[in-house]
Amino acid sequence: MSCASVWYTNVTPNLLFCFENGICLHLTRLTKQLPRLMATATSKKAAQNGADQPSIAQIPINRIVTLDEFILRSEKDFSYATGELTGLLRDIGVAAKIINREVNKAGLVNIIGEANGAENQSGDTQQKLDVYANERLIECLQNSGECCAIASEENDDIIHVPPVNSKQSHYVVMFDPLDGSSNIDVNMSVGTIFAIYRRKSDPSGPASLTDFLQSGMKQVAAGYVLYGTSTMLVYTTGRGVNGFTLDPSIGEFCLSHRNMVIPEDSQTYSVNQGYYSKFDLEMRRYIDNCSDQNFGLRYIGSMVSDVHRILIQGGIFLYPSTRKYPKGKLRLLYECNPLAMLIEQAGGKAMNTQLKRILDVTPTELHQRCTIAIGSPKMVDDLKAFIERYSALPL
Ligand code: FBP
Question: Are residues 229 and 281 in the same domain?
Fold first, then answer.
């Protein structure tokens, strides 16, 4: 389908695009299909003359680079690329825009507050926006069929995605649709966290749990969308970390933070100090040391927001074991692993309080929890030294 000649049939709000081969699409359907049309057209073009396509690094800093263009140009860095991962990242970008629209007007429409007492698989009360975000992400991923199965914090089991156009997909996606959901009603920043893996099971058959229980090292891509003062999508495919800010006037995520690098050290720590008395000795000693050194305490109560601040300004985020959560509260597969990959790609570190690198932990359950210390490398190393010195338990 050549995009060369399009003409408008009328200028009512519902613009109609007609292609020379007679196919006509309403704006709404076109916006949904445009990324795919553009993808095929541009990637064909990119493939034809990939050699002379400037890489991202060669594009002038002041030129707008949209997320779609960035993903497409980065695709050629992967010789085996089939466009599937490109399509997946695109679908997540589209879902993020849809969720962003609801998050932004949450205070106006009846979408804040609890979802009629509904609970997710670990008994957490679901917020209406959680459910909305969850459904939109699943929908966008099912539309393209670029992934064969999905795991979400809001769903007990994995969700199988029927093949689209009988295409076999090689990826599985897991996500926390709205992290920090307890912050929604008070208009604080929340976020979506996602991780993408290549499946291990045979593509000709249904995906299985083993496709999800892979160590964080196996992630092919990870990222988050932060719905804050502005909406940002930050992701990595294992070649550095880049951030895109949503420009609502053009509805595009635009490259705003290239090659993000976390500060080596900092004087800020992030922990729910309200649980201080319930922490182990080594954690209490570390927190005492932070306050003895007049470190600043910053805790938003939404991990994606706290980790985003730390990625930019440095610091350490801690969620150790407590009496209520002896194994830690946060989920390994769709909270800790993706953020650990991002922070490591930006030069930081992430470990659990048994001093094991988060990305080396082999998961055994879909919704498994884990303890985490993540952030500036110097601060994580300092914590490690504290734990080694004060830990009563053999490490
Ligand atoms: P949800 O994914 O259910 O929102 O839970 C995770 C979370 O909200 C994190 O974002 C945050 O860091 C933590 O829980 C806050 O927990 P607490 O209120 O115990 O400090």
Answer: no
Quick check: is 255 catalytic? Answer: no
Please name every residue paired with 160 in a beta bridge, in sequence order, or none if there are none: 149
Number of domains making up the chain:
2
Looking at residue 251, which CATH number applies to its domain? Answer: 3.30.540.10
Beta strands 219-227 and 372-375, pairing class: unpaired
CA–CA separation, 253 and 78 (whole Å): 22
- C-alpha span between 378 and 392 (Å, rounded): 23
Determine the structural domain holding residue 286 and report its residue range. Answer: 268-390
Does 57 map to a domain?
A: no
User: Is residue 250 located within the same domain as residue 314?
Assistant: no
- Residue 120 Cα, ligand 1 centroid: separation in angstroms? 14
pTM metric for this prediction: 0.85
Give me ligand 1 centre to Cα 319, in Å: 9
Looking at the structure, tell me whether residues 209 and 272 fall in a common domain: no
Question: Of all protein residues, whose CA lies closest to atom 6 belonging to ligand 1?
Answer: 180
Same domain (yes/no): 312, 344: yes
Verify whether residue 154 is a known catalytic residue. Answer: yes
Residue 357 pairs in a beta bridge with: 351
Element holding 303 (H helix, E strand)? helix 303-313
- 135 is annotated as an active-site residue: no
pLDDT by residue, tens only, the chain of 395 residues: 444 444 444 444 455 555 555 555 555 555 555 555 555 555 555 555 555 556 767 777 788 899 999 988 887 767 767 788 889 999 999 999 999 999 888 777 665 566 666 665 555 555 578 899 999 999 999 988 899 999 999 999 999 998 888 788 999 999 999 999 888 888 899 999 999 999 999 999 999 999 999 999 999 999 999 999 999 999 999 999 999 999 999 999 999 999 999 999 999 999 999 999 999 999 999 999 999 999 999 999 999 999 999 999 999 999 999 989 999 999 999 999 999 999 999 999 999 999 999 999 999 999 999 999 999 999 999 999 999 988 865 65
Which neighbouring-strand residues pair with 244?
Answer: 233, 255
Q: What residues are in contact with ligand 1 under a 6 Å CB criterion?
A: 124, 153, 176, 179-182, 272, 301-303, 329
Q: Residue 382 catalytic?
A: no
